[in-house]
Amino acid sequence: MDWMLRSLASLRADPDTPPWQLHVVGGGPEREALEQLSRTLGLDDRVVFHGFVDDLTLKGLYNLAHLFSCRRGRATACPPLRRCTITARWS
Q1: Contact call for residues 54 and 89 (beta carbons, < 8 A)
Q2: Range of the domain at 84
Q3: Helical spans, DSSP H, in 13-90
Q4: What global pTM score does this model have?
Q5: Which of 13, 43, 46, 69 is deepest in the core (most CB within 10 A)?
C-alpha cells in the first residue's frame, strides 16, 4: 500500500486533480508505518485510517466509495456495491 500512498501524493501535487479522500479500514503490522508515511507525504488530511470497524460503519464507508478493495491488492470499481443494502465480508 505504500506505492498507493506515494502515487496519491503525486496526484495531490497536480492542481487539475479533483478532490479525493482515501479511507483505509482494518489493521495489521504495517499500519503504523503507513500512517507515518501518509503524514510524511503530507496526506494526513486526505487519508483516514479507521482501523477495524463494525459492519454498519463498513457499510457506510462502502456507500461513500467510488473505488474499493475487498482484498489486498485487488481494487475494483463497483457502483452496484455503493447502492447495496446488504454487504458481506469474508476472510
Answers
A1: no
A2: 62-91
A3: 31-40, 55-64, 79-82
A4: 0.71
A5: 43
